[in-house]
Amino acid sequence: MESSSMSKPIIASKTSSESLEKYKDEISGLPHGNGWSPSQHLCLHKGFWFYPHFLQGVLHARDHFKAKPNDVFICSSMKTGCTWIKSLCFLIATRTQFDDSTSPLRTTVPHDCIPFLEYGEYYTEAGPKTPLFASHLPYTCLPESVIDLGCKIVYLCRDPKDTYVSMWHFFRKVVATIAPGQEDLFVPIEEGFGLFCKGMSSYGPYWEHVLGYWKASLERPNKILFFKYEDLKKETEACVRKLAEFLECPFSIEEEREGTVQNIIKFCSFESLSNLEVNKTGKQVKRDKFVENNIYFRKGKVGDWRNYLSAEMGERLDNIIEEKLSGSGMTFKN
Ligand code: A3P
């Protein structure tokens, strides 16, 4: 089973690769740094590191994307659980349109249910009632119209140690798929950790990403809903109710009685989503190669970093992060 762009049920328009490639010259003029594999370097744009293929969409969105006031953006740095929160938001927002058995999430990888800004995926005029968009963009890199119009934003972050470990596994698998034979050249986990600690990761520095949305959420609490993956795990029901209120479709008394909240949570759980046929065996096209959808579902656990990083490494990253976040009111400490 393949979940290519043809099967996207919601996205109406995708920017052509020619339109995105127009940005190659601008990107090649940016400062460069080592990526996590020899075939991929990182480019510095507005203080953040990007892989060039994502940056094309970022620059295209900067120049062409015009948000509408009721658009909602689901933002996150990579590997913080956006597959999960996207699924929750999608199911909450579309629950009157589809029921459990007809939801596109049954047959489509969650990432294809919501347009992704960096791929130049936009709605046409007749978008859904709650137009959801997804992006990994840092707050200060979002298209101007998103901020100017005061669009709502849901932000998800995650403990940096688990985020790093998840990201390392993800990119190693991507490299093995799109550049077979190069996986041995992929950065070893200790070396990649050093780069992550220096801020050199896709959409990094990670702490700057978190801080940008954190500060914005303090300034505009009605517009930016800030979550941590660990809280979403611990207090899923409360978070889901908050999400529904934020998306302006709170659960009715009848829905509460019928167990709609619990059904949504169950449907979007790691066990349930990762066992759907489309997510187990389906594939997506990424840079002309098929990547297995199961790449988005690894373990879905809190604290898995302990299986890959030493206690000293964990402490080192914690210290860096807490120092960077100090004075902001945001912390990853329990
Ligand atoms: P691990 O690699 O630690 O298992 P993203 O969705 O932003 O790409 O992040 C991927 C991480 O979220 C992976 O973490 C993945 O397993 C986890 N994940 C995916 N779906 C999930 C779900 N429904 N519930 C909890 N975690 C999930």
UniProtKB/TrEMBL annotation:
Q: Which InterPro entries match?
A: P-loop_NTPase, Sulfotransferase_dom
Query: What are the recorded GO MF terms, alphabetically?
Result: sulfotransferase activity
The alphabetized UniProt keywords are:
Transferase
Gene3D superfamilies, sorted = P-loop containing nucleotide triphosphate hydrolases
Q: Which domain of life is it from?
A: Eukaryota
Q: What is its EC number?
A: 2.8.2.-
Domain Sulfotransferase: where? 69-329
Which Pfam families would you find in this protein's record?
Sulfotransfer_1
Q: Which family does it belong to?
A: Belongs to the sulfotransferase 1 family.
Protein name, entry field: Sulfotransferase
